[in-house]
From TrEMBL:
<dbReference type="InterPro" id="IPR036819">
    <property type="entry name" value="Subtilisin_inhibitor-like_sf"/>
</dbReference>
<keyword id="KW-0646">Protease inhibitor</keyword>
<dbReference type="InterPro" id="IPR000691">
    <property type="entry name" value="Prot_inh_I16_SSI"/>
</dbReference>
<keyword id="KW-0964">Secreted</keyword>
<keyword id="KW-1015">Disulfide bond</keyword>
<comment type="similarity">
    <text>Belongs to the protease inhibitor I16 (SSI) family.</text>
</comment>
<dbReference type="Pfam" id="PF00720">
    <property type="entry name" value="SSI"/>
</dbReference>
<protein>
    <submittedName>
        <fullName>Subtilase-type protease inhibitor</fullName>
    </submittedName>
</protein>
<dbReference type="InterPro" id="IPR023549">
    <property type="entry name" value="Subtilisin_inhibitor"/>
</dbReference>
<keyword id="KW-0722">Serine protease inhibitor</keyword>
<feature type="signal peptide">
    <location>
        <begin position="1"/>
        <end position="23"/>
    </location>
</feature>
<comment type="subunit">
    <text>Homodimer.</text>
</comment>
<dbReference type="GO" id="GO:0030414">
    <property type="term" value="F:peptidase inhibitor activity"/>
</dbReference>
<feature type="domain" description="Subtilisin inhibitor">
    <location>
        <begin position="30"/>
        <end position="118"/>
    </location>
</feature>
<keyword id="KW-0732">Signal</keyword>
């Protein structure tokens, strides 16, 4: 987890250091997020965490980085605007899941956290970004 945060910080610092040169070049601003999914009812299992890097190149430890980056790009990196499966009906079982995103998107700081009643509700937030 610490290594993932260090990697996000390194990408962010590289982007800030390159900011003056950005005015003269078309180098994309950095976009890298540490994504976490955790269930409060199973603390022993621990949270699942991945690194999603979308710029300057697509990569990280996310299992479907290209699709997740595409999904984020479609909403300008605004995690509040993500839409998952539109017609998924979720059971009324309370088993809370918290999703978080920390890092940078196009050079701007990102911090997102939301708790859903269950994993089905969390998956309704996005199709790819939090599917790991």
């Amino acid at each position: 987890m610490i290594a993932l945060r260090a990697a996000v910080l390194a990408v962010a610092v590289a982007g800030v250091a390159a900011a003056p040169a950005q005015a003269q070049s078309s180098t994309p601003l950095p976009s890298a997020l540490t994504l976490t999914v955790s269930k409060s009812t199973v603390p022993a299992a621990g949270p699942r965490t991945v690194l999603l890097v979308c710029s300057p190149t697509v990569g990280g430890t996310h299992p479907n980085a290209a699709a997740a980056c595409g999904e984020l790009a479609a909403v300008g990196g605004d995690l509040e605007r993500l839409h998952g499966h539109p017609m998924r009906f979720c059971p009324m079982i309370y088993d809370p899941v918290t999703i978080t995103a920390e890092g940078v998107w196009n050079g701007a700081s990102v911090s997102y956290r939301h708790t859903y009643p269950n994993s089905c509700g969390a998956l309704n937030r996005s199709t790819y970004v939090f599917a790991f």
